[in-house]
Amino acid sequence: MKEILKKLAEESKDIKALAIVDEEGLIIAEYSKPNLNFDIEEMASLIITPALRLSEAFTDVDKEEKLEEMVVFLSHTIVILYKLAYETYLVAALEKTPLYGKVRFIVKKNLVTLRETL
Predict the structure, then answer these.
(1) Which residue(s) pair with 91 in the sheet?
(2) Distance in angstroms (rounded) separating the CA atoms of residues 115 and 100
(3) Across the 118 residues of the chain, what is the mean pLDDT of every consecutive 10-residue run?
(4) pTM reported for the whole predicted model
(5) Residue 63's pLDDT is what?
(6) Whose CA is closest to 82, among 58, 104, 53, 99?
(7) Residue 108, φ and ψ in degrees, nearest 5
(8) Secondary structure percentages of the chain, helix, strand, coil, to 5
(9) Could you say which of 5, 9, 24, 111 would form a disulfide bridge with 15 (CB–CB 3.0 to 4.6 Å)?
(10) Is the dihedral angle over the CA atoms 75, 1, 5, 115 positive or is it negative?
(11) How many other C-beta atoms can be found within 10 angstroms of the C-beta atom of residue 65?
(12) In this predicted structure, what is the pLDDT of residue 8?
């Protein structure tokens, strides 16, 4: 799994790190590029609980709504959370760039492969 994440990260210089995390915050696999100034495992573990709470709130409002993707803009990083399968999620840390949509597309097109691997 780490090799798949590494291959995905190498598709763009703007992908800093990737982690697959379960709903309890346990890391299943992760890959970080060298010289990263944060711990992707810690970031992924900490973002999952509030993301799931927010997802539950939206589901309470409309039973048909489910969390598929969440984007968080930080000072220097864009963090995107994607629902994978079996209560697992991909957390992608991207370089903050005005063209983040291109990098987001690269990550999204690889979701099928990640889901099949799980």
Answers:
(1) 19, 81
(2) 23
(3) 91 93 92 88 89 86 83 92 89 90 89 84
(4) 0.88
(5) 86
(6) 104
(7) -60, -40
(8) 40, 30, 30
(9) 9
(10) negative
(11) 12
(12) 92
**For the sheet containing 15-22, what is the strand order?**
27-32, 15-22, 88-95, 77-83, 69-73
- Residue 87, phi-psi category: left (phi > 0), alpha (psi -120 to 50), beta (remainder): left
Contact 79, 72 (CB under 8 A): yes
For 59, list phi and psi in degrees, rounded to 5. -65, -35
Give the count of beta carbons closer than 10 Å to the beta carbon of residue 95: 16
pLDDT for 66 equals 78
